[in-house]
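hiii so um. not sure if this is the right channel but i have a protein structure encoded as tokens and i wanna go backwards to a sequence. like what aa goes where. can anyone help
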């Protein structure tokens, strides 16, 4: 071949020189690890990950837009219970029910949240006994409450209903309108709990008195309500209600007086306090054994919402490479499969977060999150920057955790595969370049 000009020859030589001078990239796939010398090896070394299950800390559980109620039995995680403490308030001041009011009925209405896919978690064939009591202590919407708080309640139950979850169908009810003919109307999906006649008559007897003059006086007399749900059949589950929207949740008092048939609304909304209480019993479960034996997590580890459990994770091989400045991390992903079949009855956590606890502090911060891939049955958490900072010793954490990103308001759980799982172990997939 003849070169047309010496300029063409010079361009070719320069190009070849540049190609030969480029820094060499690790000739490993995305799923390869680093050996002790920093040279890529063509295998997945999952022994560099350690997992084990720990109890989660209590959560702030007050004044959320989602309130959980229920009880369910999980063959792996044991028993979970969710109950609700909340206020109801007057819809107007100086309430009077007219001359000689008599009770028709009083009903507590609990409206489901807007997201139909999140209204119930568990076994839809279950039947619950939902009961209503009055609080015997004061709560405030200006205060912070935690998920393990116990509440004092009055001994006499004021309402109950036997209920099978129906989260999609609207209800048809009779609507009583002041001064007009009663009508039939379709209402938002909800639970309607008939309260006792004694409680309704007690409220009617307060007509025109101080207890119904304003909300300060009313909450002094009626400190709030407490809902519990006992599972009667099936595995049970957890229902999600919206106690911030007065059009969805309220107490309605139906009554007659000397002139008309009418009703009065007690608001349940964002102005009123609401608090979730969560309880877990891990007795004689696989989860319980991991609290005292960290080796158990090498095959499976267990993450559960509602102040249940989370997974402690370590990367011993990376810890040995701290202060390394000879590696540039191109891509790093933590790939976490779930146990086969573990999602058949109870849906796994939708978004799994990797969080770090700062040294010498209880403060934690989010590193990254991974959304559950239902087709691959796994989470993928992007960790490129984190791994790079880790080996450069620029991270200040003393512990890493995997947990539900929505653990305050969702009841999901996931059985994660550990590094010694026989078929689909957790792995840290790294691609790098040597500098």
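sure thing!! here u go:
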């Amino acid at each position: 071949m003849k070169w047309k000009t010496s300029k063409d020859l010079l361009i070719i030589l320069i190009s070849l020189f540049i190609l030969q001078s480029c820094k060499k990239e690790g000739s490993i796939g995305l799923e390869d690890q680093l050996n002790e010398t920093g040279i890529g090896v063509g295998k997945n070394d999952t022994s560099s990950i350690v997992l084990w299950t720990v109890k989660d800390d209590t959560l702030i559980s007050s004044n959320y837009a989602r309130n959980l109620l229920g009880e369910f039995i999980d063959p792996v995680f044991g028993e979970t219970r969710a109950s609700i403490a909340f206020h109801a308030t007057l819809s107007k001041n100086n309430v009077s029910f007219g001359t000689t009011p008599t009770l028709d009925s009083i009903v507590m209405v609990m409206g489901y949240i807007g997201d139909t896919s999140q209204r119930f978690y568990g076994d839809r064939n279950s039947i619950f006994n939902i009961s209503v009591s009055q609080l015997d202590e004061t709560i405030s919407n200006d205060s912070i409450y935690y998920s393990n708080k116990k509440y004092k309640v009055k001994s006499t139950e004021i309402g109950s209903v036997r209920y099978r979850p129906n989260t999609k169908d609207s209800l048809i009810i009779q609507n009583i309108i002041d001064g007009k003919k009663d009508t039939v109307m379709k209402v938002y999906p909800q639970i309607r709990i008939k309260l006792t006649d004694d409680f309704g008559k007690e409220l009617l007897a307060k007509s025109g008195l101080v207890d119904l003059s304003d909300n300060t006086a009313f909450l002094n007399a009626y400190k709030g309500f407490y809902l519990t749900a006992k599972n009667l059949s099936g595995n049970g589950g957890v229902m999600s209600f919206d106690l911030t929207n007065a059009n969805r949740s309220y107490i309605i008092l139906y009554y007659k007086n000397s002139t008309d048939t009418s009703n009065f609304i007690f608001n349940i909304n964002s102005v009123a306090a609401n608090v979730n209480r969560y309880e877990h019993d891990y007795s004689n479960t696989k989860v319980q054994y991991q609290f005292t034996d960290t080796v158990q997590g090498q095959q499976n580890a267990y993450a559960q919402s509602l102040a249940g459990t989370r997974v402690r994770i370590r990367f011993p091989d990376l810890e040995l490479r701290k202060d390394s400045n000879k590696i540039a991390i191109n891509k790093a992903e933590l790939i976490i499969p779930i146990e086969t079949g573990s999602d058949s009855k109870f849906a796994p956590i939708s978004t799994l977060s990797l969080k770090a606890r700062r040294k010498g502090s209880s403060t934690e911060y989010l590193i990254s999150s991974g959304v559950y891939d239902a087709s691959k049955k796994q989470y993928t958490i992007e960790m490129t920057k984190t791994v790079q900072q880790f080996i450069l010793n620029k991270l200040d954490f003393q512990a890493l955790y995997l947990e539900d990103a929505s653990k305050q308001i969702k009841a999901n759980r996931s059985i994660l595969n550990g590094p010694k799982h026989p078929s689909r172990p957790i792995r840290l997939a790294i691609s790098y370049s040597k500098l």
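oh and Helices lie at 6-21, 197-204, 215-221, 286-290, 316-320, 384-391.
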